[in-house]
Amino acid sequence: MATASEPKSAVGKVRFIPLSFNQADSNTSALRLIYTLRPEWENNGGKVELVRFTDGITNTLLKLVNKRPGLSEEEIDSEAVLLRAYGQGTSLIIDRERETQNHELLMQHNLAPQLLARFHNGMLYRFIRGTVTQPADLRKEDIWRAVARRLAEWHAVVPCLPSSREPLATEVTGSEQLGISAPTPSKKDPALQQAIDNVAPGKLAPNVWTVMQKWIYALPVTSDAEKTRQANLQKELMRLVGEFSNRPGLGENSLVFAHCDLLSGNVIIQPRSAGVTKPSMPATVSFIDYEYATPSPAAFDISNHFAEWGGFECEHGLLPTQSQRRDFIREYIRSYFAHLDHDKEFDEEAEVDKLFNEIDTFRGIPGFYWGIWALIQATISQIDFDYASYAEVRLGEYWAWRAETDGSRAAAGKEKPLRELRWAQEA
C-alpha cells in the first residue's frame, strides 16, 4: 500500500522517486533527481547540462543531457531526459494521478515518450527530438496539416477511459473555500466529487464539463464579489451543459480522447528521417504535456487549438478564417477515418460540413474554459504572467460569442468584435 507521501500510482508501472524539485535551487535539485534516476551519469566521464525551456506559463520544463565524449548530438539526445516540475498550487486544477494514466495510455499507442519516473512535484520522461513550434508555425500549411493528422489519430485510436478513482468516501477531498457545506466535519467530501462527476449526466467522468465544474468550485470566494462571480459562472456552466453536452459528434457517446491544451509549446515538429531529402515529404508532429487531456467533444479540442493560433497575446486577427478552418478539418477527417479499425464508407464533404459547423458552434467555449482557469491561477501562481488580465480577455471572448449568437450585440447596435469578425472571414 502507498505511503502518505507516495502517490498511489507509484505502486504501478511508473517508478516513484521520493524527492522534490526546488525552483529556488533548480540546478542542485534537478541533478539530485537525474542522478537518482540515472546513477551512472554521475561518474561516467560526462558533463550533465540543464537546458531550460520557457514555453509554458504554469510548469518548469528542463532538458537534462549527459555530454559524454565521443557521442554525436543525436546520440546525446537519445539519452536525454525531460524534467517537468508542476507550478505551485496546480494540484487544485489538475488531477496528477489522471495525468500519469493519460501518459501511460498514450504510450501504449506510441503517442507519448516513455515516462521514466515521477517525483513529489513532477515527472521525468524521455526527450523527443524536434523543434517546439511558435504560434506563427501553427499558421503554416505544412504544420497545421500535420497537427490535423496527428490530432485525428488521437481522437480515433485512443480510448476514453473512466477515472480509476477510489470509492468517493475514502478519496474525495474538499476545500473550505469552495463555498459548499461539507456533509462531514472533515475535508473529505463525497458530495462534492459526486456533484463534479454528475455535472453532465450520462457522460463518462472525467470530461471537459466535469473539469470546468471542478474549477468553478475551486474559485476563491473570500469576498461578496468573488461569491457573485462564482455563482454567475456556475449558472453559465449549467447553461452550456444543457446546450452542448448531448450534441452529436465523433467518438463514443460523442466524446474523444482530447488533448485540450494544444498550444504551440505543446507541438513538436519531428526531424526528418535520416536519408530523407525530398522537400515534398509532409511534416510530422508530436504532442507533449497531457495534464489537461480528458474525454471531450472533438469540436471543443479543435476550436481550442484554433484559438492558440493567436498565442498567449490572444491576437484575434490571426485566427484561422473559414477557408483555413475548412482545409484543416478536411485533413483531419481524412486522417480520422483512415485510423478507424474498419473500412466504413463515409461521405467526406458531409463529414467536413458537420464538423465545420460544430466547431463554429463551439468557438466561444474555450474562452470560458481558460477564463475560469486563469482566475484560479491569478490567486495561486508565482509565475510572472498577468493571469487576471488573461482571464478577462478569455472570458470576454465567451461573452462576445454569446452576444453574437443570441443577437444581443446587433440589437444593441454595437460593433462586432475583432475575434467574431475574423471567425466570419471567408478567406
TrEMBL record:
Keywords for this protein: Kinase, Transferase
GO biological process, any: phosphatidylethanolamine biosynthetic process
A GO cellular-component term linked to this record: cytoplasm
Biological pathway: Phospholipid metabolism; phosphatidylethanolamine biosynthesis; phosphatidylethanolamine from ethanolamine: step 1/3
DNA-binding listed as a keyword: no
Cross-referenced CDD domains: ETNK_euk
A matching Pfam family: Choline_kinase
Organism domain of life: Eukaryota
Family: Belongs to the choline/ethanolamine kinase family.
Protein name stated in the entry: ethanolamine kinase
Organism of derivation: Lachnellula hyalina
